[in-house]
Amino acid sequence: KMQEAAEYNMKMHPMWQGPLAVPGGDRQSPIDIVVRKSVFDSKLKPLETEYDPQTCQQIWNNGYSFLVEYDDTTDKSTLKGGPLQDKFRLCQFHFHWGESNAWGSEHTVDRRLFPAELHLVHWNSDKYSLFEEAVMEDNGLAVIGVFLKVGKRHEGLQKLVDALPAIRHKDSIVEFTRFDPGCLLPANTDDYWTYHGSLTTPPLTESVTWIVMKQHIEVSHDQLAVFRSLLFTSAEEEVQKSMVNNFRVQQPLRGRTVRSSFT
Ligand SMILES: CCc1cc2c(cc1OS(N)(=O)=O)CC[C@@H]1[C@@H]2CC[C@]2(C)[C@@H](O)CC[C@@H]12
Ligand SMILES: [Zn+2]
Fold first, then answer.
1. What atom in ligand 1 is closest to the CA of residue 119?
2. Is the distance from the beta carbon of residue 121 to the nearest atom of ligand 1 less than 6 Å?
3. Is the ipTM of this complex over 0.90?
4. CA distance 19 to 213
5. How far apart are the CA of 201 and the centre of ligand 1, in A?
6. Nearest Cα residue to 144 out of 95, 88, 212, 195
7. pLDDT per residue as tens digits for the range 90-107
8. Cβ(210)–Cβ(197) under 8 Å?
9. CB 142 near ligand 1, within 6 Å
10. Pairing mode, strands 56-61 and 66-70
């Protein structure tokens, strides 16, 4: 069912007319994280995030997910530490989710699927001056992945959920301010897996240091249902399609090692 959903999306969405895997790509994402094959690296540091809610600008439906975009013209919202040598600026965060709670995440842990996955996208502002530049470089991006589980309501998420009906259709955008993305991180950000991979949407560039949190966050069934009320399609289109199953199929590991910051 999940496979069918993923294949359906493959053929239906322009976003996916792109290559299944980048030709010659040997560090594509997402992947299954096989815990017993991950390698503990004691040199991995705790993550250091400094997010300024004042840099939050707008929320938009790009026809694939909804993105909350931040002002990344200064180093006000940054990520450093962890596996990273440089300072990275937050530019946006978004989610991937399924049509049911049985699947929706892009990464899996020992094949375990989660109903959704949060991605906080950052770019290397020590080395590059624009996201568009960094997106082409192998040390250009750092994306934090956080798994979502259905359980208690996430108070911090509700402000975002309340904004979604205003961006139901593709290409709709509304102002969205004073949101602290730090409230979406799990309590424990010291335990994570990290590996070198790619964006999971076009341009699929192999420029991402992935940092996948071991600890998930909980959101309520109703909050997740509002994600599913979004549409892939723009207001003009006669046939409306629910925005669900917006995850990429998993890619081969190609000999990569996934490191863990914990034993
Ligand atoms: C939502 C999944 C998504 C959208 C985008 C990126 C990455 C995305 O998810 S992921 N899973 O981190 O790969 C990076 C490139 C971004 C794109 C959103 C639209 C842009 C910001 C363009 O306007 C220019 C660069 C594009
Ligand atoms: Zn993503």
1. 12
2. yes
3. yes
4. 28
5. 7
6. 212
7. 999 999 999 999 999 999
8. yes
9. no
10. antiparallel
| C-alpha span between 207 and 244 (Å, rounded) | 26
The verdict on the CB of residue 122 being under 6 Å from ligand 1 is no
Q: Count CB-CB contacts under 10 A for residue 196.
A: 18
- Give the CA distances from residue 49 to residues 15, 58, 178, 185, in Å, rounded to whole numbers and listed in that order: 31, 21, 17, 10
Token look-up 């979004």 returns 230
pTM of the full structure? 0.95
- On average, the pLDDT of the chain sits at 94
Report which residue type is found at 108.
T
Query: Tens of pLDDT along 49-89?
Result: 999 999 999 999 999 999 999 999 999 999 999 999 999 99
> What is the arithmetic mean of pLDDT over 187-216?
97
Residue nearest to atom 6 of ligand 1 (CA): 201
Q: Is the pLDDT of residue 23 over 70?
A: no
Average pLDDT over residues 117-140: 97
**Shortest-distance atom of ligand 1 to CA 66:** 1
**Contact status, residue 96 vs residue 114, Cβ threshold 8 Å:** no
Please tell me the residue having the least CA distance from ligand 1 atom 20: 62
Which residue carries 């699927």 as its tokens? 113
